[in-house]
Amino acid sequence: MSDTVQQIKERMSIVDVVSQYVELHPAGKNLKGKSPFTAEKTPSFYVSPDRGMYYCFSSSQGGDIFTFVEKMEGVDFKGALKILAEKAGVELVPEDPQKKSERDRQYDVLEAATVFYTEWLHKEPAATAYLERRKVTPQTIAKWRIGYAPGPPQHGWRDTRTALTNQNYTDTELHKAGLIKGGDGGKAPYDTFRDRVMFPVFDPSGRVVGFSGRILSSETEAPKYVNSPETELFNKSEVLFGYDKAKQGIRKFDFSLIVEGQFDVIMSHQAGYTNTVAVSGTALTDHQVGLLQRLSNKAVLALDADRAGVAAAKRGAEIMLARGMDVKVARLPAGADPADMVAAGKGELKAAVKDARHVVEFLLDVLADDSNDERAFKLRAHAEVLPFIVRIPNRIDQEHFETIVAERLKTTKEAVHTEVERLRAREVTAQETKAASAPAAPANPAPPATKVNHSQREALAAHILLVTEVVEEHLAKKLDAAYETITGRAAAHDRSELAPELSSELLFTLEQQYQHSPQTQLRADLAHLLQTYAAMVHKETMRQARLKLHDADLSDTDKKAALQEFDIARKQLGETEYTADYFASPEASSS
To answer: Residue ranges of the domains in the chain?
Structure first.
């Protein structure tokens, strides 16, 4: 069931769901609208695309897409799951324990293969030498878990298969994971990846779901790159290479940098562009764009400057513009790609990204360079540029680019506008049909939910766990480290266990509370929060230990253990002191 929920969340954003019921408008990094739960005149309903959550201040309720549909449609979780599964096109079937076990085995065997490849990298001097020539640092190799798949001419055809079958994985499991192929006519199956530098492909959660292998030997007619075949875990149209590592960077820089290949992603991250992703052997899809838009509404395409690169930029831009994104294109030097530019070390990639132009202006530049005469330029601009203006949902933005096109074509803005409207008229019927199919808001929405009461200690814990989402990364790391020291529990696990309703309420409140706080005040507030929580936890431990000591039925051994617990907690209570200085250094603390 959890996999089904994750599939739905990957295919439908909170904005996709809520906008079918509520008219939303930009409000900083969030969106806002009038509450669907109360009859209000001033909007107090907020949606966070980044976090996939909503919160209604007028009715004190919030959550994710599932809790929203539960409230709007008056159904329970199973009912909301069914509604959203239908909208997302996800098949809703009972989880087969056997199938889940098989899928888990696929994750396990892909992880085992990753370990095998990374170990082999250090056994093959040609592979390490190749990475050194490409200026890939050891830190980058470790971070991206780059490896080497042995194969001819120096090694065998079945080295990976042999190693993994020796770990009790069957040929059937290796086939399903895309690691071996063949086996017809009585011949033994052989490795899918042979003599290749291996790049693991991770899902948004950081689990290996497939590979991309770059051929090492230059004396071969084999394709330069080979990707894993389509499997239950690896779907090229849904995976973005580097997305798991780029999420924080996209939020930080407020745009995603989209490149073509694995090396481009890795070297861009190495150069500091930690917001870089790439498609895996396919054109950019609506699903992939949806993943990126949840983190930022802006994107820069940095693709090859050849015809194929321009065509790829146009395909990607068309999808993104239709979703209301701001799309720019970085014009790279002929014959160069981001990986080459980073390796050159001259700041070329930084300059290209800085000078990126909106896709409409980029296409006008490309057509101007590629057209033989003025009339040909105008005709091609009509055919290849105006459709992108039609895709822009914001009419004010459309008017802006109509003016730019008119100036470049040396014609009137009215002429351009007329042609844009003609193109739009051809799509009106389809758009109206789509709009008519959107469900209307229910006549009697569910009543406001009752606010959940939590103890002061639980409320403080939730505060500490969630404030990490709205402060800088180095502060978040120190908060998590302190929480784990105080409680002995993993912060990430406890954060994932919080109810969506509580999470959404706190996140929106904390965001407003801390977004304009001076750094000095913020560090002092966070220190006070930790100090108060630590005292509560240690005092509660002492109280529980004291109860055990007065329990007549408790054995001497258990009383001795309780006394030890009491003494440790009392010592921690006396020694624990969190001050603003704890947060002063930008480097994460482990204490």
So the answer is: 2-88, 97-227, 240-427, 456-583
CA pair distance 197, 396, nearest whole angstrom: 48
For residue 181, the cross-strand partners are: 190
CATH 3.30.470.10 describes domain 240-427: no
- Would you give the DSSP letter of residue 32? E
491, amino acid identity = A
Whose structure tokens read 């992880």? 111
Q: Which of 300, 322, 326 is nearest to 313 (CA)?
A: 300
CA distances to 70, 88, 99, 192 from 81, rounded to whole Å, are: 9, 10, 20, 38
Query: Do residues 183 and 217 lie in contact, with contact meaning Cβ atoms separated by under 8 Å?
Result: no
* CATH annotation of 2-88: 3.90.580.10
Helix axes 77-88, 65-73, angle to 10 degrees: 110
In order of 72, 452, 489, the CA distances from 69 in angstroms are: 5, 19, 33
Which residue matches tokens 């996209």? 250
Cα torsion through 89, 95, 98, 102, rounded to 10: 40
| Rounded Cα distance, 45 and 69, in Å | 15
Which tokens belong to 456?
Answer: 């002061």
What is the token pair recorded at 285?
């899809």
CATH of domain 97-227: 3.90.980.10
Query: H or E element: which one contains 202?
Result: strand 196-202
Measured CA to CA, the distance from residue 51 to residue 406 in angstroms comes to 40
Query: pLDDT tens string for the chain (591 positions)?
Result: 567 888 888 888 999 999 999 999 988 788 999 988 887 788 889 898 888 889 888 888 888 999 899 888 877 788 888 889 988 888 877 666 776 788 889 999 999 999 999 999 999 999 999 999 999 999 999 999 999 999 998 999 999 999 999 999 999 999 999 999 987 777 899 999 999 999 999 988 789 999 999 999 877 788 999 999 999 999 988 899 999 899 888 888 889 999 988 999 999 999 999 999 998 767 888 888 888 887 788 999 998 777 888 888 888 899 999 888 999 999 888 878 899 899 888 788 999 999 999 999 999 998 988 887 889 899 999 998 999 998 888 889 999 999 999 999 999 999 999 998 988 887 665 555 554 554 443 444 433 333 333 367 888 888 899 888 888 888 889 999 999 989 888 888 888 888 887 888 788 778 777 766 788 888 888 888 888 888 888 888 888 888 888 777 778 888 788 888 888 888 888 877 888 888 875 543 443
- Report how far residue 308's alpha carbon sits from residue 337's, in angstroms, rounded to the nearest whole number: 13
For 507, 508, 582, the CA distances from 513, given in Å and listed in that order, are 10, 9, 21
